[in-house]
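Q: Give me the 3D complex with adenosine-5'-triphosphate.
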Amino acid sequence: MRALAEDGAGEAAAQAGRRRRAALWAHGWLALGVLVFALPIWITLVGSTHDAGTIGRGEVPLLPGSHAVENYATAWAEGGGRFRTTAAAAMLWNSALMALLIAAGKIAISLLSAYAVVFFSFPGRMAFFWMIFVTLMLPVEVRIIPTFQVMVDLSLINTMAGLVVPLVASATATLLFRQFFLTIPDEYVEAAKMDGAGPLRFFRDVVVPLSVTNIAALFVILFIYGWNQYLWPLLVVNDRSLETIVVGLSKMIGTGDAQNEWNTIMATAVLAMLPPVAVVVLMQRWFVRGLTETEK
Amino acid sequence: MATLELVGIRKSFGAAGVLHGIDLSVADGEMVVIVGASGCGKSTLLRIVAGLETPTAGRVLIDGRDVTPLEPAERDIAMVFQNYALYPHMSVFDNMAYGLRIRRVPRAEIRRRVEETAALLGISALLDRRPRQLSGGQRQRVAMGRAIVREPRLFLFDEPLSNLDAKLRVQMRAEIRRLQKRLGVTSLFVTHDQIEAMTLGDRLVVMHEGRAAQIATPMEVWARPADTFVAGFIGSPAMNFLAARLAEEGRAAALAAGPVLRFADGPRPGAEGRRLVVGIRPEHVEARAGPEALPLAVDLAEPLGSETVLHGHLPGGESLTARLPGGLAPQAGEVLPLLLPAEALHVFDAETGRRLDPLEGMARR
Ligand SMILES: Nc1ncnc2c1ncn2[C@@H]1O[C@H](COP(=O)(O)OP(=O)(O)OP(=O)(O)O)[C@@H](O)[C@H]1O
Ligand SMILES: [Mg+2]
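A: Here is the predicted complex, encoded as structure tokens.
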């Protein structure tokens, strides 16, 4: 009897030990993962606080230097690199405006088109739906030449509109909203009809409020999508004053025939990271809720 | 407050006919309950009245005016849905006020009406809550409130009590009846629950496969069901049906199971030997011996204290249910003599299932 009890205790201890080892193992891997992701960011952050020469000599400092203020001031107000690119302040503004317009435009258009496809029966409804669906297979890169031609014809080259409009139509968001709208019970529509709400009123008073968490989640994703656009802005804008920060950043890095101002470049890179991070942090609460539950 | 008239309402979804010509007129302030088995077209009929569905043929008249081509909003009707359909992102107040806001009722007036209605329903304390924070019964009240506050000409209810537990259902049933009487709003109430139908309705429409099998007061439906479907649908346990033939020049029914039962109220029309169905409610069956007694072989006895429900079969194989006074405790397998009192018999034509009443002028009543 006693032996059995002791056996049991020993068993439990062994089990606890095994569990602790498993936890250590898992945490070890996680820590390694974090390191792999965080190290480049740390190096960038540190690099932005040294003078131009340090990195130029091939050193990779791991501790902050003392030139933070002047590097950031230069990057913010003047830009850097071989040709003195656009100041980061202007580029940040361009990027933010572009990303905001793309996200807002995509959401507005896909909300409306999903609303039409789900709540109305009109001739060719499914045809339209499939047309939207098919554009999923044609990302910007595939249709870039015809799109460029269209923008030239509309004389939208070198304008904010030219930057934003081709990126606004969004099959993904339309599909997402469609799936969500399909879960809205018919009885809401009917109750609204009895209450006397017209289609736009119902859209505004019921459909949009019910979609807020979805909208918030999509906003985060789409803002970052817009912010990270590279190829299209590179093509459609060559006016320095409209340069976006992702494109501008790459232009700061020379081809190797002259010294790169790595300190300014890294400061600009850090600045370029901040707005997406801010959006994620600010919208986090909504974002997570939108991905996991609906307000019903 | 209004009258409602349905004229020859038909509805098909594609090739499938759902309603086959319904005529009904509802008086001002009347509560008419539409009852029938699942799938018989009750909701479809209600939705046609609401304007959510267009009839294939027929007209809907409110106060004598043809509203068939009108949109739901233009008909001035309020509907209480089975799942309540409260907007989840709006407070109780906003849910109730929504219809009024759309109709551009002044703000102060909205507040007054919502608060009055909330007081009437005992939900004043809940006005700031979201539907999610309410119990089923409270949601039910809010859904009613949303209908009442509009002061519509017509109330439509589509099985509003079916999501509540049994006790709450009884309570809300009484409450709906009380409110409807007090407000005097003409109402249509759909249910598949016969108790709800019997207790709520001024009149019932018993629907069967897209037709109105009978339109009458609850007592009339119970006492003189128009056909075998209605007879079997209303009443619990359901009415017994026995095969018979017309005998003694229409004055009696010869049961397939043996005895010849003379009608208490006069002869039925038809040739000698016409095939009949004789109906009798379980509670009218008596456990007595006599020359016309039927021997019931008991299959199952359910003693409920105050009464005993017997299920058994007759020599011919027909099954019969009897509700007898409590205390009687026959065992399964026992054979019991039962009498079918002549006053309690319902006579139906076997072919059509229609009720057969005594010939005019010869009835003794
Ligand atoms: N939109 C529709 N399209 C095709 N068929 C339909 C449609 N709506 C209802 N029906 C059919 O019409 C018939 C009647 O439906 P209805 O909803 O009126 O029944 P009900 O009497 O209300 O039943 P329940 O008690 O189950 O609610 C059913 O057979 C149903 O399948
Ligand atoms: Mg129904």
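A quick observation: The pocket of adenosine-5'-triphosphate (ligand 1) is lined by residues B 13, 18, 36, 38-44, 192 (CB under 6 Å).
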